[in-house]
Specification:
2 copies of one chain form a homodimer.
Chain A: H1 8-34, H2 39-65, H3 70-87, H4 93-114, H5 120-130, H6 134-149, H7 153-178, H8 185-204
Helix pairs in contact in A: 1-2, 1-3, 1-4, 2-5, 3-7, 4-6, 4-7, 4-8, 7-8
């Protein structure tokens, strides 16, 4: 998008929402590492948390280069994420991993639609974050292995996944809508359908029905 | 220390204990970030967690360069840290910050005595970790500001500090003793006195009596 057509605050807001999302991923993954059932899981999750932290730092650096006050801007975003967090409390370690797999996947699909708000440099930073699939790959493998080991986990996680997707899509639509980041209601509706279809593919990859 | 005089397993064990310590710091700090009372505190603690993560990664890299299997080695260390964690559960956010300030300070003093087990490259990696005072400085400033704001916090944290120091010194002596990392009982006794004296200085820096 040309500089003239792009409102400066939509640009910074998009980056701040992404940064806060990565921060949330970082915190959740670090907690999952802390409560991991084995040292191998702990070490794997700490690596994942490290990637999220690197994403967060790259986004913060870009926000600051654009003159944004990260703390002040995040204060405006924080309640949306807090509300989602409170409405989707995992009951155990696998449900927390599943939350990362479902929620972060959905948010990232929405973020892609907001890339249009970004200048070239910001878009490069944001795209590098969105193209990093290491978290998803790790969680998919670890969840699949848990499902293979525990007979009742598949049905429980399928149910939990449905709860998560409803909350995540609702929350993401609010965020995107509130800051006017991805077009009108029609555009957001079409986007939501695409997001749901990607979500179904992610659930299928675990052998679960969305 | 020359290669001939240094047992290879003491070398790797020292690095693994340090790495697990940094991992624990990372997890605790990320949790403190998650429950931080403000976005400013959250952002500050995430930075601190990032430093601990970098330390952990540098130590892991060195352990792997020496041919150590990090996961296997950590499995042996984990119960000592878990036991300490369970015996010192913070009741709130400030007590958790205080735990980082007191416990990590004490462990680091003990680690310095174990540097004698390391070859030159490992010692350089470990010393860079021990010389990084950013966590301590951040926690000192944040705890001091909390104490200035809340009338009853000073006495509560002083009491909590005494509980922590007793557990931390006991735990560190067990670790060091179990793996024979810092000389005989006499040497460890002298070391413990030095550690207690440094601890008193850290408490004084908060205006508290150890």
């Amino acid at each position: 998008m040309s500089d003239a057509a792009r409102p400066a605050d939509a640009q910074v807001t998009t980056l701040v929402i992404m940064a806060f999302g990565e921060l949330t991923t970082f915190e959740r993954t670090a907690t999952d590492a802390q409560f991991a059932p084995s040292v191998r899981d702990k070490v794997g999750l700490v690596d994942v948390a490290g990637h999220a932290l690197n994403h967060y730092q790259a986004l913060v650096e870009r926000i600051e280069a654009l003159g944004g006050d990260v703390v002040e801007l995040m204060q405006d975003i924080a309640p949306e994420f807090t509300a989602f967090g409170e409405r989707t409390r995992p009951r155990d370690w696998y449900e927390s991993l599943m939350k990362g797999y479902v929620f972060d996947g959905i948010l990232r699909d929405f973020y892609r639609a907001a890339l249009v708000n970004l200048d070239e440099t910001s878009e490069r930073v944001a795209t590098a974050v969105l193209d990093d699939t290491r978290q998803t790959e790790y969680l998919r493998a670890r969840l699949a292995s848990g499902i293979a080991d525990e007979a009742d986990l598949a049905s429980r996680l399928a149910l939990w996944g449905r709860r998560l997707v409803a909350e995540a899509v609702d929350r993401a639509r609010r965020l995107i809508g509130r800051f006017d980041l991805a077009g009108d209601d029609g555009a957001i509706g079409a986007l939501s359908q695409k997001v749901m279809s990607n979500h179904s593919l992610r659930m299928s990859a675990l052998g679960l029905v969305a």
